[in-house]
Amino acid sequence: MTTNVQLAHRDADAPFERQPIEHEAARLRAAIADLAPELAARAGEIESARRVPADITDRLGALGLFRTLVPRSHGGLELSVPEVLPLIEALSAADSSVGWVAMIGTGAQLFRTRVSRATFDQIVMDGPDALTVGVGTPAGRGEVIDGGYRVSGRWPFASGCQNARWIAGHFVIHKDGAPVMSDGRPLTRFVVLAAERWRVEETWQASGLTGSGSHHVVLDNVAVRDAETFDLFHGPSCLPGPFASAVTPFIGSLHAAVATGIATAAMADLAAMAGRRQLFAAADLRDTPIFQHEFGRLDAALRAARALLQVQADSYWRLALAGELDGKADFAESLQGSAWINATCSDIVSGCYTLGGSSVVFSASPLQRRLRDIHVARQHAFAQERFYARAGANALGFPPVDPISGQ
């Protein structure tokens, strides 16, 4: 892995440097399509282990998934966010938990641009294919010390933490035992450290996304340098390029891609069983007008969700390239879109489950697992419908504010 990074920093004839970006995106799409049947076949194994097996994340890393958004100067593929979303969607269709962890590892490439340049170089030199994960809940406390912070905390929902090489957590800054305040709100930062400096508590017992390994991660009174912390929401990028402006609007798109992937798979599951005849029915499912009507209605909803995802991502990417992506209005609109897409996809999967009849209640049915997974995905903070209010206020002409901090 280090060899690839060294080649990327010089003008050598490294193969990944010479490939056009379009070729890399197509290569990844084809590779994930080839891998998808195996992921689907291992769904039971993934769920029972309550984590994605390390060999799967290693293979995704080897394909380049965890450096898709990293600049080529640092060994990355330098794809666009719109090119990455179909990869997340395809993995989520194959297995929801794999797709979720892949989404977290992809989003981490965005927040890593907010670390110091020295820390960024250290992370990618350690291995550009390595998985980085993070927790946005400000569940930590960082007491100001000379040159940095002394951080303690216990962060929930650290998806993929057991396979990660780097982990980030959000903490509230304290000084002399009290939170440091600004405009009536506590100041916060993120800390990013090598995985061996964290402790994982295996707490993940959940109804859905069971294989995501979203355990707690813990730091106990750990001294960290200021260069090992960063401000995701308002900090500058350590690199030039499209992520020099806000990166937070892309978060909603990444979450929405998981939802459309799960819904796409549910529709495929339902289509595959449409040749069955349910108890006391006069015809096979596929031949009944009510089934055809409902399948068409659900298909229209899925097409609408995917269209909104694509339009928003394309729009944000154009703004990012122009350096004009906004961390207030665009972030609010992104979360609005994520909320609507997650709600729509939840309805799609629920509709597929209902149409499937009694056979889908068994553990062997992928539809029952997708039903549980989509509803857990919808519970995430970045899929919550409360963000409709902020987007609505913006549309009514109120001054945009950060939808997270309210400032």
Automatic annotation (TrEMBL):
A molecular-function term among this protein's GO annotations: flavin adenine dinucleotide binding
Q: So what EC number does this one have?
A: 1.14.14.12
Q: Which domain of life is it from?
A: Bacteria
Q: Work out whether the entry's keyword set contains Oxidoreductase.
A: yes
Has UniProt tagged this entry with the keyword Cytoplasm? Answer: no
Give the Acyl-CoA dehydrogenase/oxidase N-terminal domain ranges: 26-106
Database matches in SUPFAM superfamilies: Acyl-CoA dehydrogenase C-terminal domain-like, Acyl-CoA dehydrogenase NM domain-like
Name the residues that span the membrane.
none
UniProt source species = Bradyrhizobium ivorense
Question: Which InterPro entries does the record match to this protein?
Answer: Acyl-CoA_DH_C (IPR013107), Acyl-CoA_Oxase/DH_mid-dom_sf (IPR046373), AcylCo_DH-like_C (IPR036250), AcylCoA_DH/ox_N (IPR013786), AcylCoA_DH/ox_N_sf (IPR037069), AcylCoA_DH/oxidase_NM_dom_sf (IPR009100)
* Domain Acyl-CoA dehydrogenase C-terminal stretches: 254-384
- Put simply, this protein is called Flavin-dependent monooxygenase, oxygenase subunit HsaA
Signal sequence span per UniProt?
A: none
Q: Which PANTHER family does the UniProt record give? A: ACYL-COA DEHYDROGENASE, ISOVALERYL-COA DEHYDROGENASE, MITOCHONDRIAL-RELATED
- Keywords for the protein's UniProt record, in alphabetical order: Monooxygenase, Oxidoreductase
- Note one Pfam family from the annotation: Acyl-CoA_dh_2
Query: What gene is this protein translated from?
Result: hsaA_5
